[in-house]
TrEMBL record:
Subunit structure: Homodecamer; pentamer of dimers.
Residues given in the record as 3-methyl-2-oxobutanoate binding sites: 45-46, 84, 112
Catalytic residues as annotated in Swiss-Prot or TrEMBL: 181 (proton acceptor)
InterPro entries xrefs: Pantoate_hydroxy_MeTrfase, Pyrv/PenolPyrv_kinase-like_dom, Pyrv_kinase-like_dom_sf
CC per GO annotation: cytoplasm
Encoding gene per record: panB
Organism per entry: Spartinivicinus marinus
Name recorded for this polypeptide: 3-methyl-2-oxobutanoate hydroxymethyltransferase
Length: 265
């Protein structure tokens, strides 16, 4: 696979095609994921739960994120690497800039952070300094204590309108990508059609330009009950490589996500 860049992803969107995104946190899985045809690897702060065993993403630190980004960059075979800014590392544009630089030096090509319109200045600052932004909207897990649990966001008309306006404002500020997590499919579709940059969805229906899942969830090895939007791709595969290839094919052919994985209005 030729090296994937933002230009590649923008062309995929313009052609009304889909690209696949998955998390990875180490060199071995990064190698498998990228050779299986996944265009984007996300070094997510979900590692605070999946790797570290915490019950939220809040304990993950910038040092943890840099360590795992370094590992992923070594195994990666040409996928685009996005890394998360963890809890409380982007409270001001200056802190975001300082911490995003650490992730870029560790091997990230895009930096992701959670929030809304208040991040416009951060996006501008990063962009001026050569750091592309991916803004995570909807269910933003670092705010689980504000939401009072992991709940679908944007169900009320006012909240949906705010999310749509936030996305437009952030694109204007220079955001290169969006992640939409756990939002009703019609809202995800409206946002995907309202911005010209690619939108990656998780629990956001089939209309987004890409899908992402936590690797351990789609391999069926996360303990406990899976969220509605997760599909276990190991159920019909005889190797991890095959499961990930089937995921890529399902995203590109629009057979994943199916109706059973989405949140209706
Ligand atoms: O941390 C993560 O894995 C994420 C995805 C679930 C979008 O942010
Ligand atoms: Na995350």
């Amino acid at each position: 696979m030729a090296n994937i860049t933002l230009t590649t992803l923008n062309k995929i969107k313009q052609n009304k095609e889909k690209f696949a995104t998955l998390t990875a946190y180490d060199a071995t899985f990064a190698h498998v994921v990228s050779t299986a045809g996944v265009e984007v690897i996300l070094v997510g702060d979900s590692l605070g739960m999946v790797l570290q065993g915490n019950d939220s993403t809040l304990p993950a630190t910038i040092e943890d994120m840099c360590y795992h980004t370094t590992c992923v960059a070594k195994g990666n075979q040409g996928s685009l690497i996005i890394a998360d800014l963890p809890f409380m590392t982007f409270d001001t544009p200056a802190n975001a800039l300082k911490n995003a630089a650490k992730l870029m030096r560790a091997g990230a090509q895009v930096v992701k952070f959670e929030g809304g319109r208040w991040l416009c200045e951060t996006v501008q600052q990063l962009s001026r300094n050569g750091i592309p932004s991916c803004v995570h909207l909807g269910l933003t897990p670092q705010s689980v204590n504000v939401f009072g649990g992991y709940k679908v966001q944007g169900r009320e008309e006012q909240a949906a309108q705010t999310m749509l306006e936030d996305a437009k404002a952030l694109e204007q500020a220079g955001a290169s990508l969006f992640v939409l997590e756990c939002v009703p499919s019609p809202l995800a579709q409206a946002i995907t059609e309202s911005v010209s940059v690619p939108v990656i969805g998780i629990g956001a229906g089939a209309a987004t330009d890409s899908q992402v899942l936590v690797l351990h969830d789609m391999l069926g090895i996360s303990p406990g009950k899976s969220p509605r939007f997760v599909k276990n791709f190991m159920a019909e595969a005889d190797s991890i490589q095959a499961a990930i290839e089937n995921y890529v094919a399902a995203v590109k052919s629009r057979t994943f996500p199916a109706a059973e994985h989405e949140f209706k209005a």
